[in-house]
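Hello,

I think I submitted the S-adenosylmethionine job twice by accident. Can you confirm which output corresponds to this input? Input:
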Amino acid sequence: MSADKYKGESPAKKMVRLNSWLKTSKELGKKFYTEKHLVLASREGGDISVLLGLGVDPSNIIAVDLVKFAVDSAKEKFPGVVVYHNNITEVAKKYANQFASINLDWCGHASKELLSTTLDVLRFGAQPNAICYLAFLSGREKPKLYAKIQEEKTWFDNVIDGCPHKKQALNKKDRQKFTNVNSRLILVAFALKDLGLNKGVWVDPDAFFYYCSKTSKKNGLPFAVLHGKVRFNRLWSPKIIDTYFVESSETDVRKRAIQMHAEMKASESPRLRKHAAHFAAKLLNIPKSRVVSWASHYSRGTYGDLGLRAGGGIG
Ligand SMILES: C[S@@+](CC[C@H](N)C(=O)[O-])C[C@H]1O[C@@H](n2cnc3c(N)ncnc32)[C@H](O)[C@@H]1O
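Support: Only one job matched these inputs. Its output is below.
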């Protein structure tokens, strides 16, 4: 049995994940609610929580983990969600291209092996034009991981050198933009594309997020996220991709929760108004009691002016 190596989620992870799922729901439109989504469970089930918070039916959420304890915790926390104790590649095969979105929030670095597994999951599981979210441990700033990163970089450099689309895809402006945020992300995209040519699937990236938490190490290492569309044909059109650098702390999570809660309370939907704390909590994978407490402190003026803007919340 695999050991549970997941360290839990950081404030920045919560924020990036929520934004990315909001983006996915907009991109998929009605399909977001009628089709299935594949996620890695973990004992926290953060992605499951956000999907439920956005109104996805539990039966359309398929979660997987190699760790039995994580599977049991996720099942207990989210009744009705299908949680498999298995390798995610096997589950992708079982569902044979039924997923409208696939979220692979790995705990590992973007090694050749992990990229290959990523492509297999997409190839076996994704519908054409499914939306995917791929998160890799970045860690380039951590000295003890330096050797590992150098190893990866050499491998990526070789991939890039052999890439015929390199010149068209990376014009000067794009290159600057990517290097400013995290140059390794574009390398990941190229590596996925090159490896994918052999497997008949790759990712057309449309946004890169690089995130880290402002708080201490216990809150997590930096991550690099690629948000894109799964392609099964050989068309690949270079374009400018949105890049985001996200740095968040617990205070940002609290602000976001209070803001979403206030927006839901003012919404036209009676269900959202009635269960505002429940939904805001799900969207950030935090206990409902915390949202209730934050909202009541906020209304009593405990936090002062949080600078909340109307319309800046659940999008
Ligand atoms: C970063 S966590 C996922 C967090 C989760 N997305 C959330 O929102 O809470 C990654 C999880 O993937 C699991 N995992 C890693 N490789 C896997 C594989 N090949 N198949 C299934 N689960 C895997 C790990 O055990 C770990 O619990």
